Structures are given as C-alpha cells and as structure tokens.
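Q: Please design a sequence for this.
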C-alpha cells in the first residue's frame, strides 16, 4: 500500500497486515492559504516553499536564527500545520533534524542564514549522506551582486556540500518575471530524491534580496500562472510515482540463481545489518523463521535487543557471535557456506573479519541503495531492494523450515556465551560498562513503547557485544496478534553510524525522540556528551514528545583507545592528553545550566533505581554513570578471556558428538536407555551434628535412594539422594519426585554441554522434562545430576573431574601436576562435646593423624564464653600450625556472637560459620568483630538467581562459601556459587551432609575440579590462590556401615602429608560400586506400565463407553479418579498417576467426546455437566465399591465439583483451575453464545484450525511458553468423535451450567482448590470459593483445614502440565487427610 500513496497522504500501520491513509491537507488551500496576500516576492516564494513541503508530508522545521533566512523562518512559523524548533547552534540543530528523520521516517527541514551558518551543517550533512537519512536543507544566500565583492556574511554556497547531497538546487532571487511553479518543481524534485533510494540530504540554496521581512512591494500575480489547480486541490504540484521492479517474474534468471543458492545452503547464516523501520523488523522476523538459519543481528537492526513474548520462540538468534569468534576452534570449524546479509553495514569488526576469512563463498547483500558498501570486497550478489520487496520474493519460493545441525550448534554455542557473560557481569560487584549495556537493554525491553539511541565509540560496541538479546515483556497486550504469534518484537535502535562521529549525538537523540514519539533511552560516552552540550537547549523546546533519558558513561576520557593497540606502546601521559583527552568537567554543572535533571550513579543498585525512576517519571533526565578507563579495559579483557575459555571448552564437548537429532534442536551425545532406583539404608556411629534433640540418638539408620542411569551404549552412572532433617524435603517426598522423574528420563538425549555446568543442566531439565528446574528438590536434583555426570564420564572413558575440566583445560592446568598429586585435603569435623581438655585431646589426635584443618561445632554450650574456652584450650594444646574453623549454625544472637568473637580474637580462626541467624546483620558482624565469616545455611536459603542474591555478600569480611551440592540443588548451582566465590577471592568449601562414600567420592572429584578452575581464574586475574583448601568431607567418620564393604579411602599420602582423598581412589570406588550390594533394600522402581480398558455404562437410552486407564493396586484403600479438561485425554494424567500409584488406586478416563470414549444416544440428548456427571457416577459404581476422591482440571473440575456436591460416594475433590460456574445470568448468556460459536467453528473448520484459535487466547499464554506446547497441541488431535466433542463444548459450556455458588455453603467434604500463580482469574476464584465455604461452616464441622487453597508457582492455567511436581505433593498430602 505504501507504494501507491501520493505525497499528500499520511500512512498509518496498525499491524503488519492492516494500514490506512488519509489526506491531512485537503481543506488547507481552500480556507487558510492565500498566496496572493503575500507582501513581496520573497514572501511569495518562501510561502510556496513551506506550503509545498507541508503538502509533501514534511512539517518539522529546524530553524537557525538569522536575518537572510527571515522569509523562510517567518512563513514556516506562520503555517498552521508546521512544527518548528530553533537552536542557536546550527550544528546541533542539523543533527537534531537527522534524529527526527530517523525516528519518524520522514525528512525534517533545516533553515539557516548565509555564511558559516551553512558550513556548520557540514558534519550533519556528511552523516545524513553516509547513513541514508532524508533531509531537506534550505540555506539563505546573498543575491549574485553581493557575492565575490567583500559583502558581509557572503561566501560561496553553490555546491557547498559537494557530493554529500543527493541534489543541489540554486534558486535565483525571487522575482515575478519567473513562473512561481519553478519553486514548486524544485521542492518536489528535491524531496523525491531525498526520500527515495538512495535516500539522503538535498540542498536548496535560496537567494534573497532585501527586504527580508513583510515590507510591501508591488508584484504581479502573473507569476502564479499554472497554479490555479494547485491552489485549490491541496496536493503537491508534481507527484512522483514509483513502481516495484523486483519479482521472480521480471528478474527470473538472476533471482532464481540467488534463491537456489539459498535453498541449497547447508550452513547458511542470516546477517541483519542496519534496519530503520519496525515494519522491516517484522518482515525480517518472518524470513528468519522461514529459513531457519542462525541469525546474527547487528545492534542497529532493532532485533539485537528484542521484547520476548514466548520463551521458546526466538531460538534462531545468535546474539554473541562476536564472542564466539574469540575461539580459534570455532573460527576454523564453523564457517558458513552461504551468507545472506539484509540491511546496512555491521558494527562488529570481528564478525566482518570472520566473514572475510570465509571467502570465497556466495555472499548475498540486500540493501535499498546501489552503493558498494563492501569494504572487504567479498559480496558476490548485490540486490538493490527494500526489505519488504525481498521478503515478499522469498515467500514466493519454497524453503525447508527444518532446523539443521549447523543452526542448532550455533544456538547452543550462543547459550554457552550468554550464560558466561551473564555470570561475569552479574558477579562483578562494581558498576562496569558492560553491565550498563546489560541494564539499558533490560529497561528498554521491558518498556511498553520505548526506543534506543546509542552513541559511537565504546558504548555501541558494548551494547552490541554485551546487551541481553531478549527481554521478557509484560506489556504484550499492546501488540498485534501477528507479533504475539512471532513470539518477539524488535525495538527501534538509532545511531549516527554513517560517518560514526561523536559530534551531535545528544541533539540527534532528542530529534529521534520527537520523530519516533517513543520514550527514548540514549546511551553515550562522556566525550560525546561534552561535544554536544549545546544540544541540551533543545530539551526545553520539544514539548510534543515522550521524556528522554540520556545515560552518560563518564570515564573521564575516550575509553576506546585503552582497548586499541596504541594503548600498549604509548606512554600514559601521552595517552591521557592526546588520546583519552582526560577531563574533570562537572556534568552536574552543565545540566544545571540547562535546567535538566541530573542523576549521579556509582553502583549497580543506584543505576537500577535511577533507570526505574526515569521510566516512571515524565521529565527528561541525564543519568551520569561513573566509570574508569583502566578498570573498564581490565574488565573487558577478563570478559574476553573467560568467554574464550568457555567457548573452547564447549567446542571440545561438541567434538565428542557423533550424531545429531534435527527434531529436538540440540546436540545429544548419547541417550538414556533406562533409569531406575533402589532404596538403601546406612548406619551412623553417632548422631549427625545437625541433630537437635537427644531423641535423634535413638535411631542412627538413614534411608536413601540410589539412582542408576543406563545409557544406550550400556554405560552406567550412579547417583545418591539422601535428604537429612535440615532439608525441607522428607525421604518420602523425595522418593515421590524420583518416581515422577524416572518416567520422563527414559529415552531422553543427553546434551554434549551438560558438563559445562553453566545453566545447561537447568535448560536440559526444562526442555526434556517440561518442569521448572526450581520445582525439583535440591537433594533429588543433586542425585539426578550425579548419576548423569557419572554416566557421561563412563561414556567418555573418563573420570568426573576430567569430564568437567575438558581435555584442553585438563592438559593446560596439569602441566605441573602429576597423577599422584591429584588429591584434595579434608577437614576434620568435631562435635565439640565434653570438657575443653577432652575436646582439645580429640583435636590433638586428629592433628597427629594428619589433619591440617579442623571444624568445631559451637553454640551448643550454656554461654559463648564456654565455647571460647574450648577454642583457647585447643590452641594451647596444638598451637597455631593448624586451621581452626567454628560453626554456630545460626544459633547465637548478635550480642552472643560478639561476645564469642571478643573472646577468640587472638585465636586466629580461619573463619566462623553462620554466627547469627538474621543474615542481614552478617555484614555488620564482620565489620564489628573483625572475624572472617563463612556462609552455609544462608546459601541454602537462596532461591532463584544465585548470583544476584550473592552480591550482597561480596564484603571482604566474608571469606568462604560452604557449599553442599545436595542442599544447593546439584553440581551446576554449586559450581556457579564456587565460581562467584573465586571471582571475589573467597574460598569455596565443598561440604557433605552425611552421605555415603558414593557421594563422597563424587565430591572429591568435584572439589578437585573446582580447585583447578580456581587456579586458572586466579592466574588470569593475578589474584592470590588459596593454597590447600580443606573441604568439609569429614562426615565420613560418622558412617558405621557403608553401602559397600569398603568405603572411600581417606589417608595421608606420605610422611608429612595432609589427610585427604585422591581422584584416583575416588574413581576406583565409583568404578567398583555395586548396585546389588547386600545393604541395598529390595524396594525397586523402574518404569511402571499403566493398564488400559473400556467400560460401558448408561441407562434410559443414553450410554457411554469410557476409555479407562489405571495404575496402582486394587488393594489400595483410596481410589482416585482423574478428570481432564476440554480437549484433554486420560493420558494427560499418566505421569502423575504413576508417581502416586503406591499411595492409592489411580484411575483416569476419557470424558465423553474425548479420546477413545464413545457416546450412544437413542434420541437427541444433552451432554451437559449434569449428564456427564451422571454417566461418571455410574462408571465409578462399576469400577469400585469404595468411596473415591476426584481430581478435576478445568471442565473436569466443574464436573468434579458437581459430583462432590451431589454424590455420597465422593469423599473429597481436588479442583484445579475450576469454577462453580457464572453467577450472573447475563454473563452466562454471553458465554453460552461464545461457546456455541466455538462449537460451530470446530465443526465447520475442523480440529486443527480450531486448536489454533482455542490456544491463542490469554488464558493459555503461560502454556504457550512451555517447551512441550507443540507436543500438547499434537495430543489434542487424538479424538475419534469430533461431532460429539463439539457437542460437549456447547452443552457443557459454563454458560449453560447451573451455577453452584449457592451450593458451596452446604459443602462438608474436603476440598483442595488449586490454581497457577500466573492465572490470576482462577487464583481469585479459588479464594472466593473458600471464603464462600468458610462463611457458612458454622455448624461445628471443621472446614478450616478441610478446604484449602494451593497456588502452584511458575505456571498458569494448565497446572498439571506446566508444573506437576508441587501438584503431586499437594494431592498426596490431600489424600492423607481424606484417608
């Protein structure tokens, strides 16, 4: 449509597929515009110029003060449809015009006087030309008789800007002897050439004789001849018409050759360069999905930072390609065979160099201009086309949409880099410049209507390299359905990258804000900001725009030179003066002078607060971020080294891969053939130190689970799960989770990247199991990771530490380490019971055995002074040659802890672990006591993002992190905490929790891996290496009876050595571990099968043959019947049923019209909720004589609610995302009509089309983000009787169902009301139902505990599919109450 608009029309795009236009100047000429009223010819021509520009849709005028330009300025400001702005600095004004054009996609007009005022426009003209920004320049000039004669303010302005303008026109002084239509055609031509490809600036030099104001001079209207129609129709004088010139038909041979190359590519890569419009961003997202190639988006493409609506929707983007190229292995092995670049030149020099190194290969460049923008001279096909034209051509051609090994490999690599960069940026306590880029992307991405302007030099490179690629949006309601289906939306980004200068950036950003009509965030450096402080004067003039936030990274100079080779070989004083241009200018004073709000930030938290405040306020703000050139250079260097190391290790793992699964879009190294577990029992010699009462001493037996994972090559890995009393999960609850997970593990492919422990395990769990990793108990996840990692190590014929280190790292780090030295020290653990002398004697014996470090439990005596006396006695006995740690387990108050600290100040403790309970006082304790502190339980309590939580504990007084993998949720979480500790120069102490020697052996290898990684990081960062860290594995002395006859070997390797364990001995134990040991109990669980049969019930001419699935024994007292929702089947409940089958007899059914169930009616019958409930009641009577508990979801929940209120056989119900109906009749009528329409849609358009409509509503937004959503959709097609399915939708509509709200007051049965936390509607309904029941439970029946609401975290409406583990525990707990 855009191609057919005439210039007097405005174009509005309300979605990618819907737009309209209108004539905005139609009435102007008839009522408001009278050319004949002009006082002289200067005013006539000036008014014609302004009017024609307005008719062409150009109404933004940037006017510099001056006398010679008065006719233009006066007429521009008088026009009712213009928007005028002024600035005393022509340079800032011109750049402001460029910004407006970038934001609005329409040119602005610049008006200046003669002389150097024109020359001041030159930098902006160069930028506009190089960056293809349409701009109209009107310069006033002296008449010919005043040139070359020494007249004031007269210079040669003819072709003043040379080849940097698309057209130069020199208008003679206005006269009535020339037809005025000459002026109009000049304007029309200039605008056409400026706004058509290649776009850019055009220059019209306007000569004026005096008078320059409204002084009347007689003039002849004959000069207006030919303008009669123009004066009345309100349209431009000359209308240019373009016709599309690119299609398969008109350019078949050339285009077909290119399209065939694209089609045949095996390793194609899509590069998206500079893109200006949101419509083009949307079109490119379509072509990216069609090609399924990896996408490398430049920061100026608008797709480098994206608003994300669906978590699994934008897998194609490779945001960190620049960092991937730091790896030589990657560069050598990951070269594309075809490059398709759409859009302008790239920001990244490294990517450009890589593409150059790939030549000669087909390199296709698509851009709207014809110029040779190919500095490496590698482009083989150059297509001049708009993005929309080229995308249209691509859609006429058929491409395979199947993801390839190449695409998936690059996606996995991108994930590795993303996690590493995120960890490094978040871990550094300082406010770094890469963090600023991270934070800016976050705030822009979460905003509803935001845009970004980025300066040159360092900031644009940081944004391109370190910004988050996708930011989850909470404002998806404002976007068209097309964007939501795409799953993401680009964010407009502008910059002056034509000539990449640092001048005029503030002014350009303000103009971009006016043009885009969005809330703009501008990121610039301090030198750039100082270069254009005059632009701040524009802020107070631009009323018709959203507020702008300018973030200035102030490192007091030009930081980019510190990253260039010149910094390595140049003296610092020369660098500071001639390269960095160091300064101490106060930005606050500059902002005050311009009356602009200034915010100074020095920390991460201050930056977050400042950006959030700016987002919520309606004022312009300058946020000054204090930085340092030297620290910035150092941190960039560390980032490069850490990401390079991560990349090299990832590439090593990929080289192990021998096969590839295109359907699953990931890199598997092997497959899990089967997973199973057994129960084992272990006996302790004494109660654990965590035991709270003497009663704990009665039973020293500990039950645990042994998990065995067998891979497809028959290699085996073992894992151990053993919750202890300090864990929040019990043994039975852990076993319940394991039963559920084992069903999902069989057949899963194990990714090559799992040993990286950088978030890959969490991603694997989410992708394969479809459950939030946070819902798995810590001890369960630890055992799961242990079994898989051990299996992978066996698969690779390696041990665990070697697997985690990788070959290259292992060889590099062990150049000076022999195999005999591959061991770790172990810290002895002392319970500290007995007198000071007795405890000192025990410690003395441990020292003689070879222990170099001892940890003592404190806070168990009457006073802290008594504990201090024990420490003093130990030092008196053994001296200061050993390390002493103490652990208070948070048992002291602050005053008690300080009392102990004062008494042991001279005892040289290595650290005191968890001295006080209120952890927010831990920093104060460090500072007041002077004692080093270690964290343990504080780490256990952290949920969610570990790194962000850990930042509050970066204080140097906290010297150690005691990390228990079984409490932290496995080795991945533990490794991330250990890495954070290393980056902050803290010890990472691996600690056991009274597990068996199997776990201890794994911990030994894991601790050795952490030690080697720590050494590497310390060497890289020139940090002190903590020598001889003793790990907290001393609990092995508590074990009286092991799983196997011989436990882990712990010993002193040689005379004078220290007590510890070796990697070799631990590996021997793992390799010789026996699954069939006599101490392993007989209870065993593999993959349980579910029985399936049919039952026919009915009466009075209506019957139904139900498909029934069953798990569990018939002898189970409790019978649970599961009822699915609309479009579901009995199979939806299978994993939950298997998990609970040891607790009850589990039954699920295909409801009428669903799955394999069939309905037979002798005459037309309604399949209402009441009818289906009646049929189900007969089914229950047929299956069991016992009472039943119903578990119903959505439609099944409404049926379960009806049966619970009307059947004595129902003993209780779990209502999941269910409602008693609609209270208001009007709402029921509306809903009835909606469901009738839906039923008609199902019948007329078929199930596949219906599913697309059904699952596109807001109710399913959370489910659409689920990695198994497509699998769920496929399961929804398994229905034999579509006609009955549509009838159920209509007849069982909540609009036709009788409301049960009034019946709730009579409910005396246990109810569990369940809803997902993201499903606010049903969360409210659940609470309302409970309130209704409780308000009428005054007859002595205790409904306080019988009716409960359970809100399941991290899920929406489909609770049982999105986050089943918490639901399983809730159902089991409910069944115990019913029982």
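A: Design:
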């Amino acid at each position: 449509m855009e191609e057919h608009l005439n210039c007097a029309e405005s174009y509005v795009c309300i979605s990618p597929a819907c737009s309209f236009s209108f004539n905005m100047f139609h009435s102007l000429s008839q009522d408001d515009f009278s050319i004949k009223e002009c006082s002289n010819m200067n005013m006539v021509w000036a008014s014609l110029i302004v009017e024609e520009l307005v008719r062409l849709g150009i109404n933004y005028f940037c006017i510099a003060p001056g006398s010679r330009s008065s006719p233009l300025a006066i007429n521009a400001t008088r026009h009712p449809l213009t928007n005028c702005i002024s600035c005393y600095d022509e340079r800032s004004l011109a750049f402001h015009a460029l910004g407006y054009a970038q934001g609005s996609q329409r040119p602005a007009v610049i008006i200046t006087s003669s002389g150097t005022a024109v020359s001041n426009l030159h930098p902006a003209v160069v930028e506009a030309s190089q960056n293809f920004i349409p701009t109209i320049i009107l310069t006033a000039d002296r008449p010919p008789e005043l040139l070359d004669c020494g007249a004031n303010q007269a210079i040669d302005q003819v072709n003043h800007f040379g080849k940097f303008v698309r057209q130069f026109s020199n208008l003679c002084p206005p006269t009535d002897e020339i037809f005025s239509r000459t002026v109009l055609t000049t304007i029309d031509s200039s605008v056409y050439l400026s706004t058509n490809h290649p776009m850019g600036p055009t220059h019209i030099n306007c000569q004026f004789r005096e008078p320059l104001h409204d002084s009347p001079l007689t003039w002849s209207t004959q000069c207006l001849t030919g303008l009669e129609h123009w004066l009345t129709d309100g349209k431009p004088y000359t209308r240019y018409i373009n016709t599309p010139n690119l299609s398969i038909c008109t350019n078949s041979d050339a285009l077909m050759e290119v399209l065939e190359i694209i089609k045949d590519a095996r390793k194609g890569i899509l590069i998206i360069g500079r893109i200006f419009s949101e419509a083009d961003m949307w079109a490119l997202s379509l072509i990216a999905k069609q090609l399924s190639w990896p996408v490398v988006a430049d920061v100026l493409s608008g797709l480098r930072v994206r608003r994300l609506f669906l978590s699994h929707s934008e897998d194609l983007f490779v945001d960190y390609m620049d960092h991937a190229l730091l790896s030589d292995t990657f560069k050598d092995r990951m070269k594309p065979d075809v490059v398709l670049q759409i859009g302008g030149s790239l920001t990244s020099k490294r990517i450009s160099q890589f593409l150059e190194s790939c030549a000669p290969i087909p390199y296709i460049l698509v851009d709207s201009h014809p110029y040779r923008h190919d500095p490496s001279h590698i482009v083989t096909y150059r297509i001049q086309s708009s993005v929309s034209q080229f995308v249209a051509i691509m859609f006429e051609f058929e491409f395979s949409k199947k993801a390839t090994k190449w695409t998936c490999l690059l996606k996995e690599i991108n994930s590795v880099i993303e996690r590493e960069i995120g960890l490094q940026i978040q871990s550094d306590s300082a406010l770094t410049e890469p963090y600023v880029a991270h934070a800016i992307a976050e705030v822009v991405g979460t905003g509803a209507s935001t845009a970004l302007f980025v300066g040159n030099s360092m900031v644009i490179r940081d944004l391109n390299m370190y910004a988050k690629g996708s930011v989850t949006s909470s404002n998806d309601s404002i976007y068209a359905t097309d964007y939501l289906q795409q799953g993401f939306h680009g964010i407009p980004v502008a910059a002056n990258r034509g000539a990449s200068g640092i001048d005029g950036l503030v002014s350009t950003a303000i103009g971009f804000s006016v043009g885009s009509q969005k809330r703009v965030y501008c990121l610039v450096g301090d030198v750039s900001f100082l270069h254009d402080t005059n632009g701040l004067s524009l802020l107070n003039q631009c009323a018709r725009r959203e507020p702008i936030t300018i973030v200035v990274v102030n490192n007091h100079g030009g930081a980019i030179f510190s990253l260039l080779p010149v910094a390595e070989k140049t003296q610092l004083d020369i660098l500071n003066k001639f390269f960095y241009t160091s300064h101490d200018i106060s930005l606050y004073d500059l902002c005050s002078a311009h009356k602009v709000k200034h915010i100074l930030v020095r920390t991460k938290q201050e930056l977050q607060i400042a950006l959030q405040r700016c987002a919520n306020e309606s004022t312009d703000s300058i946020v000054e971020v204090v930085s340092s050139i030297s620290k910035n250079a150092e941190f960039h260097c560390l980032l490069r080294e850490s990401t390079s190391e991560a990349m090299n290790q990832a590439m090593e793992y990929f080289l192990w891969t021998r096969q590839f699964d295109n359907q699953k879009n990931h890199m598997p190294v092997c497959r899990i053939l089967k997973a199973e577990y057994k129960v084992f029992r272990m006996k302790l010699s004494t109660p654990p130190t965590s035991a709270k009462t003497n009663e704990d001493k009665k039973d020293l037996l500990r039950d645990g689970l042994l998990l065995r994972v067998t891979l497809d090559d028959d290699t085996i890995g073992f894992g151990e799960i053993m919750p202890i009393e300090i864990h929040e999960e019990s043994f039975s609850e852990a076993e319940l989770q394991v039963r559920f997970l084992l069903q999902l593990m069989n057949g899963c492919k194990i990714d090559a990247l799992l040993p990286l422990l950088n978030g890959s395990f969490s991603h694997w769990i989410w992708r394969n199991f479809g459950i939030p990793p946070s819902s798995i108990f810590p001890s369960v996840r630890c055992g799961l990771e242990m079994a898989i990692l051990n299996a992978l190590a066996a698969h690779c014929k390696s041990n665990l530490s070697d697997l985690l280190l990788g070959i290259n790292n292992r060889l590099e780090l062990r150049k000076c380490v022999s195999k005999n030295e591959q061991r770790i020290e172990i810290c002895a653990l002392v319970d500290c019971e007995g007198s000071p002398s007795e405890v000192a004697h025990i410690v003395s014996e441990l020292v003689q055995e070879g222990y170099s470090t001892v940890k003592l439990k404190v806070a168990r005596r009457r006073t802290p002074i008594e504990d201090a006396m024990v420490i003093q006695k130990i030092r008196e006995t053994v001296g200061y040659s050993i390390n002493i740690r103490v652990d208070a387990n948070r048992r002291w108050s602050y005053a008690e802890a300080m009392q102990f600290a004062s008494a042991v100040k001279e005892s040289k403790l290595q650290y005191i672990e968890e001295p006080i309970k209120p952890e927010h006082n831990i920093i104060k304790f460090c500072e007041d006591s002077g004692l080093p502190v270690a964290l343990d339980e504080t780490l256990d309590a952290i949920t969610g993002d570990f790194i962000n939580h850990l930042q509050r504990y970066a204080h140097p007084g906290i010297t150690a992190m005691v990390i228990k993998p079984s409490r932290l949720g496995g080795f991945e979480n533990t490794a991330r905490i250990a890495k954070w500790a290393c980056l902050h120069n803290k010890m990472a102490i691996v600690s056991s929790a009274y597990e068996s020697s199997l776990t201890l052996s794994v911990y030994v290898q894991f601790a050795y891996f952490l030690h080697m990684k720590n050494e590497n990081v310390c060497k890289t960062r020139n940090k002190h290496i903590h020598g001889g860290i003793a790990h907290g594995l001393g609990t092995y002395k508590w074990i009286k009876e092991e799983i196997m006859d011989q436990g882990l070997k712990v010993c002193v390797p040689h005379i004078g050595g220290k007590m510890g364990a070796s990697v070799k001995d631990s590996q021997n134990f793992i390799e010789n571990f026996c699954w069939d040991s006599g101490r392993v109990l007989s209870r065993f669980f593999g993959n349980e099968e579910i029985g399936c049969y049919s039952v026919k019930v009915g009466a009075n001419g209506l019957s139904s043959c139900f498909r029934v699935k069953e798990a569990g024994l018939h002898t189970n007292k409790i019978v649970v019947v599961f009822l699915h929702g609309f479009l579901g089947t009995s199979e939806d409940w299978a994993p939950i049923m298997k998990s609970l089958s040891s607790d009850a007899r589990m039954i699920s059914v295909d409801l009428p019209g669903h799955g394999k169930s069939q309905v037979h009616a002798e005459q037309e019958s309604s399949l209402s909720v009441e009818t289906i409930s009646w049929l189900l009641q007969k089914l229950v009577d047929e299956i069991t004589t016992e009472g039943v508990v119903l578990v119903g979801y959505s439609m099944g929940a409404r049926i379960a609610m009806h049966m619970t209120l009307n059947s004595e056989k129902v003993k209780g119900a779990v209502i999941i995302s269910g409602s008693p109906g609609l209270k208001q009749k009007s709402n029921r009528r509306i809903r009835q009509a909606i469901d009738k329409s839906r039923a008609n849609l199902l019948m007329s358009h078929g199930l596949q089309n219906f599913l697309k409509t059904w699952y596109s509503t807001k109710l399913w937004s959370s489910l659409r983000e689920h990695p198994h959503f497509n699998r769920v959709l496929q399961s929804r097609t398994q229905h034999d009787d579509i006609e009955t399915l549509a009838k159920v939708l209509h007849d069982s509509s909540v609009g036709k169902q009788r409301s049960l709200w009034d019946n709730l007051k009579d409910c005396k049965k246990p109810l569990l009301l369940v809803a997902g936390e993201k499903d606010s509607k049903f969360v409210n309904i659940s609470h309302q139902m409970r309130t209704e029941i409780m308000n009428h439970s005054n007859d002595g029946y205790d409904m306080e505990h019988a009716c409960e609401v359970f809100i399941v975290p991290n899920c929406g409406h489909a609770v049982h599919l999105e986050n089943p583990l918490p639901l399983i525990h809730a159902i089991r707990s409910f069944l115990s109450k019913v029982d």
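Q: Thanks. Anything notable?
A: Confidence is low (pLDDT under 50) at residues 1-32, 476-484, 658-666. The two ends are 69 Å apart (CA to CA).
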